[in-house]
């Protein structure tokens, strides 16, 4: 039974960066109501009414996984680690983005699944790529083309984006070898609750998984969790290790501990989410109060990182160009555009981080360490960052 516990209001597609803000463009901007619910049976946290993926994953998909040094290194390390542990002969990635993970393997041993054609075009030059959505039909096609059985299926920040988990996992089971392994990385629901990082909820994140909820889902498809790793990436993610029910892998102690911890923090109880919702409303009030106070003192505030996360924050808190002068972002195809829903100009940090800036909201708070290293001079000359996670505060280190 799905119970709504959080209403983040009218939201645009988090990825819908606008080329211009003329009347016609704004008239056609798509919005939807972002309501989050909790399933009291399988403990799944999801968007009440997901957006049609064909609207989201187009040939203009903005996010490039390789934009951050942190993520490039993280994918290189996990590729090495998985190869060493499982020695896969055939590797497939669902949601391969710009190839940042698969690039670490021999080209002939990999298959990329990436529905966004602008990204698939990048990897088609490197290795076998299918520019399609993952489902049972594509899984059958791969088998007909003698591309199965796959020993390692990897998917980072993708499975949580796919509304039809039934198709997803049936397709995975269908192509996975008997002792094959699926490794899925997605934001940790426990970390979202602990960090009050409500900005992990946006149209692409149809689900924010907990260990207990994903365990309940995959069991229906003859799969089981056997291991887990807690990651610092994206503000706190889990790396789930999954195999076929009859697979040779024994459940690890750290998996048992992870499940116990989630039960301890009551991720199986609706009360936990109702309390979270109250904290989110307070966070909104405190962020707005802080920013408005700084504006009355004629302070110049910008935002650092045109993230999908900050789309949720700005539209929920009604933060627009009256408060934020502009947003900086290193992604070339975001520069010169405007933020979804709030229409704040996006420019390069080479131009935007200058001596006139007093405060920078951390839109990419999940890369705080990398950003603070990069913007040491901004801090030394008295610039300050503003964060909203885990609490609204001004940061100087
Ligand atoms: O799940 C998803 C995550 C992995 O990536 C996707 N659905 C969409 C996207 O969400 P996001 O935009 O919130 O992710 P990031 O990786 O937090 O975005 C970081 C943004 O900040 C990028 O646009 C690059 C930019 N950036 C920057 O301007 N300067 C990043 C760093 C580290 C910097 O120094």
Compute the gyration radius: what is it? 21 Å
Helix % is 25-40%
Span of the ends, CA to CA = 44 Å
Q: DSSP strand (E) fraction?
A: 15-25%
The largest beta-sheet arranges its strands as 6-5-4-7-8-11-10
The average pLDDT score comes to 96
Helices and strands in order:
Blueprint: E1 2-12, H1 23-27, E2 31-39, E3 45-47, H2 53-56, H3 69-86, E4 91-94, E5 110-113, H4 117-124, E6 128-130, H5 136-144, E7 150-156, H6 165-175, E8 176-187, H7 189-195, E9 207-208, H8 211-219, E10 223-231, E11 237-244, H9 253-264, H10 270-296, E12 301-304, H11 308-317, E13 327-328, E14 346-347, H12 349-352, E15 359-362, H13 368-374, H14 376-380, E16 384-387, E17 393-395
Parallel strand pairs: 4-5, 4-7, 5-6, 7-8, 12-13, 12-15, 13-14, 15-16
Antiparallel strand pairs: 1-2, 2-3, 3-9, 8-11, 10-11, 16-17
Helix pairs in contact: 5-6
The structure holds ligand DWN.
Describe the structure.
The structure is a single chain. 34% of the residues lie in helices and 23% in strands. It has a seven-stranded mixed beta sheet, with helices on both faces. A six-stranded mixed beta sheet has the order 14-13-12-15-16-17. The protein has 397 residues and is α/β, with parallel strands linked by helices. The model has no long low-confidence stretch (mean pLDDT 96). The protein contains 14 helices and 17 strands. Bound molecules: ligand DWN. Residues 63, 67-68, 157, 204, 234, 305-309, 329-331, 334, 349, 364, 366-367, 370-371, 374 line the site of ligand DWN.
């Amino acid at each position: 039974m799905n119970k709504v516990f959080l209403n983040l209001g009218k939201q645009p597609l988090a990825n819908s960066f606008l080329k211009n803000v003329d009347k016609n463009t704004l008239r056609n901007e798509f919005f939807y109501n972002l309501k989050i619910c909790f399933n009291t049976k399988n403990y799944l946290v999801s968007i009440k009414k997901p957006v049609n993926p064909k609207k989201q994953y187009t040939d203009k998909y903005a996010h490039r996984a390789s934009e951050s040094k942190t993520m490039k290194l993280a994918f290189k390390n996990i590729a090495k680690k998985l190869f060493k542990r499982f020695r896969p002969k055939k590797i497939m990635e669902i949601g391969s983005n710009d190839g940042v993970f698969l690039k670490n393997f021999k080209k002939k041993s990999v298959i990329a699944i990436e529905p966004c054609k602008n990204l698939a075009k990048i990897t088609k030059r490197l290795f076998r790529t299918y520019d399609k959505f993952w489902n049972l039909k594509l899984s059958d096609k791969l088998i007909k083309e003698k591309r199965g059985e796959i020993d390692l299926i990897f998917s980072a920040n993708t499975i949580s984006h796919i509304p039809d988990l039934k198709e997803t996992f049936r397709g995975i089971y269908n192509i996975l070898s008997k002792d094959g392994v699926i490794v899925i990385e997605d934001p940790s629901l426990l970390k979202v609750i602990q960090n009050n990082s409500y900005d992990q909820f946006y149209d692409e994140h149809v689900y924010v998984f907990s260990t207990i909820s994903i365990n309940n889902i995959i069991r229906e498809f003859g799969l089981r969790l056997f291991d887990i790793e807690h990651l610092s990436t994206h503000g706190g993610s889990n790396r789930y290790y999954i195999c076929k029910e009859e697979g040779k892998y024994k459940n690890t102690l750290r998996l048992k501990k992870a499940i116990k911890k989630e039960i301890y923090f009551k991720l199986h109880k609706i009360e936990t989410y109702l309390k979270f919702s109250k904290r989110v409303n307070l966070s909104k009030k405190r962020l707005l109060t802080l920013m408005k106070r700084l504006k009355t003192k004629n302070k110049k505030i910008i935002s650092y990182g045109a993230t999908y996360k900050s789309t949720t924050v700005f539209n929920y808190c009604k933060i627009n160009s009256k408060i934020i002068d502009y947003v900086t972002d290193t992604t070339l195809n975001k520069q010169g555009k405007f933020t979804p829903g709030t229409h704040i100009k996006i420019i390069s940090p080479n131009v935007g981080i200058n001596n006139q800036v007093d405060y920078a909201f951390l839109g990419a708070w999940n890369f705080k360490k990398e950003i603070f290293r990069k913007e040491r001079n901004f801090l030394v000359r008295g610039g300050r960052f503003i964060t909203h996670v885990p609490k609204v505060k001004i940061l100087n280190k």
